[in-house]
Amino acid sequence: MKWALLLCALGLFLHCEAKQLSRCELVRELRRNGFPENKMRDWVCLVEKESSRRTDIVSRPNGDGSRDYGLFQINDRYWCSSTSQPGKDCNVTCKQLLSDNISKSAACAKKIYQRHGFDAWYGWKNNCRSKPLPDISSCKK
Length: 141
Prior knowledge:
- The chain is 40% helix and 3% strand.
- By secondary structure, it is mostly helical.
- It has a two-stranded antiparallel ribbon with strand order 1-2.
- The N and C termini lie far apart (49 Å).
- Strand 1 and strand 2 form a beta hairpin.
- It holds the Pfam family Lys.
- It comes from Parnassius apollo.
- Residues 1-18 form the signal peptide.
């Protein structure tokens, strides 16, 4: 019985690490992390299509064996280190991209955007480019 309680408590602790943001919570977090207002609807669309606004998502392996991590589904082939040491182009561990504190994920996503634009994300290319973007008008500034 004690083991069952311990496992249940551990499950609750691990579950607390994950978060699914509402659309307006996402907008607030993006604003807090310096995302430009004129691209906000694109970023919201990207996150909704890539991770369903969840911070804890790790993709199945891609064709090349790499995986995508977190809110922005950032790939470990180029951007984050799958070891315990920060590294690759964003100088972070992939585990850091799974945090409810999205500052490291946001900084990395902005770096990717600076180099490649939204075309770096298939979720945006396939679902947001030249299509209606999410309505964020009810999300207070």
